[in-house]
């Protein structure tokens, strides 16, 4: 098991943030929530980023966090109610937190990347979160454009690969050259086991993981891709970097993030890929863009030199790249 101070911090951080956003979900996500009302996600994102940023500043003073959120809107009068909700949840962790404290902690993550920094997606898979399906807390440490450590907190996954609502959830932790491990999200539980990708080498037997939302991928090309490889099983739709956890734990063989025709110029954000990519590679898999290039985390907040994402168990990667080329993906 990985025993560095950074790994211990990352595990504790995603566990704590996972519990926090579960509280937000339990209290704010209701059947009466109107379509398009993203307030629970907004509150959860802000609250989790505030807590993780504060914990990071305590554990590693001076550490840089590149987060998804900024507190600018919360500081405006129109954001007063949202801020009040965020503070309420942050106080379940830091009882003495003031609104100014919370905004300041959130803004610890509103900076540009440095040569060495952390990156956080407090609720990856916002629509899954609202639907009660898969979402993840994703935290990674980046040095010199390379991900050196990543943690995924998946509240609705058991053993890193099986959907389970209301269970303790799973944490996956990985560090460069030290492997990947999966354990429980529950505090104080030390049930770590090494995460290993599937050994399936026959493309026809591959299980393909893809986004649920059509706007996040190209469903038609995925179908053509599967046909080109003779894949027998239907693709599995799953929100968030929980897909990466499932692949790393052996519950799938391929993961596709194709270019959506609705967003042809979309560029991946670092917090959407950093933690998941190292978890897969350290579990024995391979992650590249759709052209076979390694993901390059040296360009600030985005993967601007990469195009889409392909992750596999490694054994099927070259075949998958060839199939992507054949279907024009």
Structure, explained:
- This protein is of the alpha+beta class.
- It folds into 2 domains: 5-194, Fructose-1,6-Bisphosphatase, subunit A, domain 1 (Fructose-1,6-Bisphosphatase, Chain A, domain 1, 2-Layer Sandwich), CATH 3.30.540.10; 203-326, D-Maltodextrin-Binding Protein, domain 2 (3-Layer(aba) Sandwich).
- It has 9 helices and 14 strands.
- The protein has a 7-stranded mixed sheet, with helices on both faces. A 5-stranded mixed sheet has the order 11-10-12-14-13, with helices on both faces.
- Helix 2 (39-59) crosses helix 4 and helix 6 (219-229) packs across helix 9.
- The protein is globular and about 60 Å long.
- The model has no long low-confidence stretch (mean pLDDT 95).
- Belongs to the inositol monophosphatase superfamily.
- Its cofactor is Mg(2+).
- Pfam families: Inositol_P (PF00459).
- GO terms for molecular function: 3'(2'),5'-bisphosphate nucleotidase activity; metal ion binding.
- Its EC number is 3.1.3.7.
């Amino acid at each position: 098991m990985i025993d560095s101070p950074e790994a211990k911090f990352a595990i504790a951080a995603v566990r704590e943030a996972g519990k926090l956003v579960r509280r937000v979900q339990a209290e704010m996500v209701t059947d009466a929530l109107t379509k398009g009302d993203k307030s629970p996600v907004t509150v959860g994102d802000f609250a989790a980023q505030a807590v993780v940023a504060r914990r990071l500043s305590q554990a590693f003073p001076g550490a840089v966090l590149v987060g998804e959120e900024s507190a600018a809107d919360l500081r405006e009068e129109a954001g007063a109610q949202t801020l009040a909700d965020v503070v309420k949840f942050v106080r379940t962790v830091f009882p003495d937190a003031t609104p100014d404290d919370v905004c300041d902690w959130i803004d610890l993550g509103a900076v540009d990347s440095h040569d060495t920094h952390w990156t956080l997606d407090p609720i990856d898979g916002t629509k899954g979160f609202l639907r009660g399906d898969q979402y993840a807390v994703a935290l990674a440490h980046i040095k010199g454009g390379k991900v050196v450590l990543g943690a995924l907190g998946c509240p609705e996954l058991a053993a890193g690969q099986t959907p389970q609502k209301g269970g303790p959830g799973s944490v996956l932790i990985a560090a460069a050259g030290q492997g990947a491990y999966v354990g429980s999200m529950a505090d104080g539980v030390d049930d770590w086991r090494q995460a290993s990708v599937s050994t399936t080498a026959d493309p026809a037997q591959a299980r393909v993981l893809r986004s649920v939302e059509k706007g996040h991928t190209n469903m038609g090309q995925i179908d053509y891709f599967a046909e080109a490889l003779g894949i027998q099983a239907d693709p599995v739709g799953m929100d968030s970097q929980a897909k990466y956890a499932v692949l790393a734990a052996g519950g799938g063989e391929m993961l596709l993030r194709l270019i959506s025709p609705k967003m042809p110029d979309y560029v991946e954000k670092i917090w959407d890929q950093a933690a998941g990519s190292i978890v897969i590679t350290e579990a024995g898999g391979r992650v590249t863009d759709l052209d076979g290039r390694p993901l390059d985390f040296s360009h600030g907040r985005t993967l601007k030199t990469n195009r889409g994402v392909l992750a596999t168990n490694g054994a099927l990667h070259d075949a998958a790249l060839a199939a992507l080329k054949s279907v024009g993906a």
